[in-house]
Structures are given as structure tokens and as C-alpha cells.
From TrEMBL, chain A:
One GO BP: protein transport
InterPro entries the UniProt entry points to: Yif1_fam (IPR005578)
Region annotated Disordered, chain positions: 1-22
Organism for this UniProt entry: Pundamilia nyererei
Keyword Cytoplasm among record annotations: no
Domain of life, source organism: Eukaryota
Family designation: Belongs to the YIF1 family.
Gene for this chain: yif1a
UniProt keywords, alphabetically: Endoplasmic reticulum, Golgi apparatus, Membrane, Protein transport, Transmembrane, Transmembrane helix, Transport
Coiled-coil regions listed: none
Residues annotated as transmembrane: 150-171, 178-204, 224-257, 283-302
Role description: Has a role in transport between endoplasmic reticulum and Golgi.
Protein name: Protein YIF1
GO cellular component: COPII-coated ER to Golgi transport vesicle; endoplasmic reticulum membrane; endoplasmic reticulum-Golgi intermediate compartment; Golgi membrane
UniProtKB/TrEMBL annotation, chain B:
Pfam families xrefs: Yos1
Function: Regulator of endoplasmic reticulum secretion that acts as a key determinant of brain size. Required for secretion of extracellular matrix proteins. Required for correct brain development by depositing sufficient extracellular matrix proteins for tissue integrity and the proliferation of neural progenitors. Acts as a regulator of the unfolded protein response (UPR).
Species in which this protein is naturally found: Maylandia zebra (zebra mbuna)
Name of the protein: Immediate early response 3-interacting protein 1
Family classification: Belongs to the YOS1 family.
Length: 308, 72
């Protein structure tokens, strides 16, 4: 079958625009097209099975493409439009946040996620909390289990929203507005906490390399504890809820204090250089402890109405 | 307390407005928070009060420009 071979060579640069055109002739081409569109190719080949039986031009799709200059021109135009749109979106987004920095936070793998979840739930046996560097840039989460990532907080947030909907549904208190309300409440609390942390770090002139995304990550780690708490509350009733709340609160407080201690309090860690802010180092300790104490309060606040 | 994003935006705007209407001469000087009373610390020891005063002043400066554009 040399038709797929033809399709690969001829339509590889235009494979991106093919789904937007919506012609059955084009579907047939993308199903045999580039390996970059593999998943989409397998998907549209499902359409293809139904296509040729209905369409007259199904068998000779390849020839039709060249015989019909309008479709050809439309496809080129579509692909150039898609490229322009993609460039514009990238430019706008990179004005607000640097996409490269964001990519660093999502470079995770399974081993890292499993180890990190275990550390979040049981941090008492973890020995080495230092974030390792590689020539002045922090290592990606794939190579360093102490690096913070944004994958776990994002997934945990979404899982928490779904779990909240399920918990409310079990108690027959569900309606679609409640889901949105729960999601925006949780999001607002994260934003408030990140803003308060940023403000306090700025006021105390703490020179750390904690970026905004790091703070968002540390705020998002509490959702893992929340999910565990809600699950125990649903499975084991009110007693299970309080036990799980206590357990995840202590684990999370320990985790936050140990992690932030490395970043905010350099004079209390192994070697004291004496640089950075010398104005009342106990204020920096207060910030760390306060942000750790805030976690159980917010966990209780956001989950108690789900488990009655 | 069920928050929405809109209420957060409202609260943020009200807080920034509250900081922006603090008058420099009539009020901040009286309680010793004027910015000309803060030039002292060099090096990296500004302290909380100086940082806060600088923050208030910068918020007021930014809001002056934005309020002019917004009202027009």
C-alpha cells in the first residue's frame, strides 16, 4: 500500500491544518500523515473507515488533492493561519510569564511524583532537604526530589474539586453551581496565601530565590492533604476525618517548615554567611511558622463542610 | 465563607484604593511615615517600616497615573 507513503511525504508540512478544514479528503490524508500527528492520525483513521463508503472521492483522495487547487490553497492558508495564531498566543503569554520557567516546573516523572507524595504524607524520615543545583540553576524535579513542581498541585487541585463534588453528591447536596463555587473559593484562598507570602517576603527584604511559582507550588501541596482528609472522612465517618486531618496537618506543617527553612533562613542552616537580611532573623522564623500554621486552618476550613 | 474570583478582585481594588488615598502631607507626615523621613539606612538594612513606606509611596505613584487614565 503505497498510499500511506505518499501521504506521509506530501502532506507532512500541512498535517497541522488538516483537521481544521473538515473535508473527508483531508481526513484521509492526515490518517496516513506524519508521525508527529500520530495520535490524531489514529483517531481520524477511525473516521476514515466510515468515510470512503459514503464519499465518492474516497479512493482517489490523493489525486483529488492535487486536482483541486482550491482545496490545496485553502489548506495552505489554513495552516499559515494556524501558525500565526499559535505564534500570537505564545507571544502574549510570554509577556505575562516566562514559559521556560513554567516548563521547568512540569518536568516531572512517575518516580518523582511517587516519592514526593510519600514525603508529603510522611516527611519524618526524609533526611536531606537541600535543593541541589547544577551550575547556578536549580535541577529539574526529575533529578532532584526536593525541587518543587507545579504538576502535583495542579492535579491535586482538580482532584479536590472532583472529590468535593462527589462528597456533596453522596450527601445529596450537589448542584453544578456548588462545584464552581468550591473551585473558585479554593483558588481564591491560594491566591490570598501567595499574595500574603509575597508581601511579607518583600517587607522583610529576604533575599531568596523563591519565585512566585515556587510559592504557588508550596501553597498547592496542601491539596494533597485535603484529598486524603476528605477521603478518610467519607470512608470512615467523622472520627476518620479528624484523625486524617490531624495526621495530614502535622505532616504538612513539618514539610513546609523544613522546606522553607532551607530557603528563607540561611543563617539557621548549616553555614551562616551573614549576608541577606540581618534585620531580626526571628521575624523570618515567624513567617515560616505562620505559613505552616495557616495550612491546617485552611484545610479544616475547606473540607469541613464536605464531611458532616 | 464562599469566595468568588470577583469578590477577590473587588477586595483588591478597594484595598489599593485605600492605600492610594492616604495623603502624603496631611496624614503620613503626622504619624512619621512620610518618605522623606526614611532616608537613613544604606547597605541592605532597610527595615520593615522603611519598606512599608516605600511600598505605600510606590502604590500611590502608580495609582496616580492609572487613576488619571481611568477617569478620562
Amino acid at each position: 500500500m503505497d498510499l500511506p507513503h505518499h501521504g506521509y511525504r506530501e502532506t507532512k508540512p500541512r498535517a497541522r491544518a488538516a483537521p481544521t478544514a473538515g473535508d473527508s479528503v483531508l481526513f484521509e490524508d492526515t490518517s496516513s500523515a506524519a508521525p508527529a500527528m500520530n495520535s490524531q492520525g489514529y483517531y481520524t483513521s477511525g473516521y476514515n473507515m466510515g468515510g470512503p463508503s459514503n464519499d465518492m472521492q474516497g479512493g482517489g483522495g490523493m489525486n483529488n488533492l492535487f486536482a483541486d487547487p482550491m482545496a490545496n490553497a485553502a489548506m495552505m492558508y489554513g495552516s499559515s493561519l494556524a501558525n500565526q495564531g499559535k505564534d500570537m498566543v505564545n507571544k502574549e503569554i510570554s509577556r505575562f510569564m516566562s514559559v521556560n520557567k513554567l516548563k521547568y516546573f512540569f518536568a516531572v516523572d512517575t518516580r518523582y511524583v511517587l516519592k514526593k507524595l510519600m514525603i508529603l504524607m510522611f516527611p519524618y524520615t526524609h533526611q536531606d532537604w537541600e535543593v541541589r543545583y547544577h551550575r547556578d540553576t536549580p535541577l529539574t524535579p526529575r533529578q532532584d526530589v526536593n525541587a518543587s513542581d507545579l504538576y502535583i498541585p495542579t492535579m491535586a487541585f482538580i482532584t479536590y474539586i472532583l472529590l468535593a463534588g462527589m462528597a456533596l453528591g453522596i450527601q445529596k447536596r450537589f448542584s453544578p453551581e456548588v462545584l464552581g463555587l468550591c473551585a473558585s473559593t479554593a483558588l481564591v484562598w491560594v491566591i490570598i496565601e501567595v499574595l500574603v507570602m509575597l508581601l511579607s517576603l518583600y517587607l522583610l527584604t529576604v533575599h531568596t530565590d523563591l519565585s512566585t511559582f515556587d510559592l504557588i507550588a508550596y501553597s498547592g501541596y496542601k491539596y494533597v492533604g485535603m484529598i486524603f482528609t476528605v477521603l478518610c472522612g467519607l470512608l470512615f465517618g467523622s472520627d476518620g476525618y479528624f484523625v486524617a486531618l490531624a495526621w495530614s496537618s502535622f505532616a504538612l506543617m513539618f514539610f513546609i517548615v523544613r522546606s522553607l527553612k532551607m530557603k528563607i533562613l540561611p543563617s539557621l542552616s548549616s553555614d551562616s554567611m551573614g549576608m541577606g537580611s540581618n534585620a531580626k532573623p526571628q521575624l523570618r522564623l515567624y513567617i515560616t511558622v505562620a505559613s505552616a500554621l495557616f495550612q491546617p486552618i485552611i484545610i479544616y476550613w475547606l473540607t469541613s463542610h464536605l464531611v458532616r | 465563607m464562599a469566595f468568588t474570583l470577583y469578590s477577590l478582585i473587588q477586595a483588591a481594588i478597594l484595598c489599593i484604593n485605600a492605600v492610594a488615598v492616604l495623603h502624603e502631607e496631611r496624614f503620613l507626615r503626622k504619624i512619621g511615615w512620610g518618605v522623606d523621613q526614611s532616608v537613613g539606612g544604606f547597605g541592605d538594612e532597610p527595615g520593615i517600616k522603611v519598606q512599608l513606606m516605600n511600598l505605600i509611596r510606590s502604590v500611590r505613584t502608580v495609582m496616580r497615573v492609572k487613576k488619571k487614565n481611568f477617569n478620562i
